[in-house]
Specification:
Structural class: alpha/beta
CATH architecture of the largest domain: Alpha-Beta Barrel
Strand order of the largest sheet: 4-5-6-7-8-9-10-11
Helix content: 25-40%
Distance between the termini: 38 Å
CATH superfamily of the largest domain: Enolase-like C-terminal domain
Largest sheet: 8 strands, parallel, barrel
Shape: globular
Strand content: 15-25%
Radius of gyration: 22 Å
CATH class of the largest domain: Alpha Beta
Bound molecules: magnesium ion
Number of domains: 2
CATH topology of the largest domain: TIM Barrel
Number of strands: 16
Length: 431
């Protein structure tokens, strides 16, 4: 062990300066909550002295995330090198974890991480998937989640309060109303998706059962009612599309086992978060009894959560949300961690366009990612209001984004200082 001359008292309490990885310097951080489009979203831009702008986002309680970014992270980011991504990540993570933090802090770090990768890509002329090691595949298999055009979004002209995640409106009959169709016209929806080239569709049919009965007990009649749409899909299109079922963490073990038993013969690709994720041992017990593969879970945030799940053999797929766990940097680490257990990783979406882009970058470069979630209703009805260009999904596969960095940008006109929910923190003259 090397002795520090003068003892510990001589060690500065200030963190070491950020090592320079480039000639760039961060000059401003800017956020916007687009509550007139997607109220749970927060959009981030990080500006540099070279004029490069990095883009990031995260989802859920955006006002708290804005406070973390402007009142805390900006103190370190402003004036520092944006290309020292890992140094920033570790610095922030160590401070957050010293206070038991997992929520708004990690979401803020996720948004920042995306923006820093975007800047590194733009300054080097390389796509993020190139920076991550290049292509592991030419395109990324996606499945369609059954959100409709109004799921997670505030309809134009309406000022209703934001709903709760997982409690979204099932919508109404009409084009791209995939949640309504998943309940009332699942066979038609499956045929439409198969015709578009999709090889997977996700159902949320048990959300209504939870609202009607709670999570402790589900009558068999309700279980059968909620399974019917999936049976209809098997009858209509056979095995031409994978069926996935998300329970949004609503149920306790006995209800979850009833659901698993009822879908066992339908050969689902996975059951996801049917049971509340309070206890990994109960989850392992559920996996042993369910007889259906389990995806676990975008509801976990930390590497230790995921390691625990893997160590206990409690999952068949590891589901990761790139803008909740710590950005592209941590998403890649988690996908690699799962590889060591021969458990494939899957990318979560439903929560914003840059989350989708981030997942596709990681999925393009990391062999262990098996599939990416996507919501065609979001992509086709309002992602264009937030980004340019939009993601390209061709015949059920997302194309790796073209161009340097993330390969897209947040629409600059969104960052209107007069818009409610706009904030900017910048270097002062002489700093
Ligand atoms: Mg889910």
């Amino acid at each position: 062990m090397t002795e520090i001359p003068g003892g510990l008292d001589s060690v500065s309490p200030q963190p070491a300066p950020v090592p320079a990885s480039s000639v760039l310097k961060i000059t401003a951080v800017e956020t916007l909550i687009p509550d007139d489009v997607m109220p749970g979203l927060i959009l981030l831009r990080i500006h540099t002295d070279a004029g490069t702008i990095g883009h990031g986002e995260t989802y859920y309680v955006p006002q708290a995330v804005a406070a973390v970014i402007h009142d805390w992270l900006a103190r370190r980011l402003l004036g520092s090198d944006p290309c020292s991504i890992e140094h920033h990540w570790r610095f922030f993570y160590e401070r957050f974890s010293a206070f038991g933090s997992r929520g708004a802090e990690m979401r803020a770090l996720s948004a920042v991480d995306l923006a820093l990768w975007d800047i590194l890509g733009q300054s080097s002329g390389l796509s993020v998937w190139q920076l991550l090691g290049g292509k592991a595949r030419d395109s990324v298999r996606v499945y369609n989640s059954c959100g409709g055009p109004t799921y997670g979004r505030r309809p134009p002209g309406e000022h209703s309060e934001q709903g709760w995640p997982g409690h979204g409106d099932i919508g109404k009959p009409g084009p791209l109303e995939d949640n309504w169709a998943a309940h009332h016209a699942a066979g038609d929806l499956a045929e439409e998706l198969v015709a578009e080239g999709y090889t997977g569709m996700k159902f949320w049919t048990f959300d209504r059962a939870y609202r009607a009965h709670g999570g402790s007990y589900l009558p068999m009649s309700t279980v059968r009612e909620c399974v019917k749409p999936m049976e209809e899909v098997r009858k209509r299109v056979g095995d031409r599309i994978e069926i996935l079922l998300d329970g949004h963490g609503f149920f306790q073990l006995p209800a979850a086992l009833r659901i698993a038993e009822a879908v066992r013969d339908l050969n689902l690709m996975w059951l996801e978060d049917v049971m509340r994720l309070d206890n990994v041992d109960t989850l392992r017990d559920f996996r042993d009894k369910a007889g259906v593969p389990l995806a676990v879970s975008e509801m976990f945030i930390s590497r230790e959560d995921y390691r625990h799940v893997l160590e206990r053999n409690a999952a068949d797929y590891l589901m990761v949300d790139p803008t909740w766990v710590g950005g592209i940097s941590e998403t890649r680490r988690l996908a690699e961690l799962a590889q060591g257990y021969n458990i494939p990783a899957a990318m979560h979406d439903c929560t914003g366009p840059l989350t989708l882009f981030a997942g596709i970058h990681v999925a393009t470069a990391v062999p262990n990612v098996v599939i990416q979630e996507s919501v065609r209703a979001h992509i086709r009805t309002f992602y264009d209001l937030l980004i340019e260009p939009n993601i390209v999904i061709d015949n059920g596969f997302a194309q790796p984004p073209e161009g340097p960095g993330l390969g897209t940008r947040l629409r600059p006109e969104l960052f209107d200082p007069g818009h409610p929910g706009y904030r900017i923190t910048r270097l002062q003259p002489g700093e």
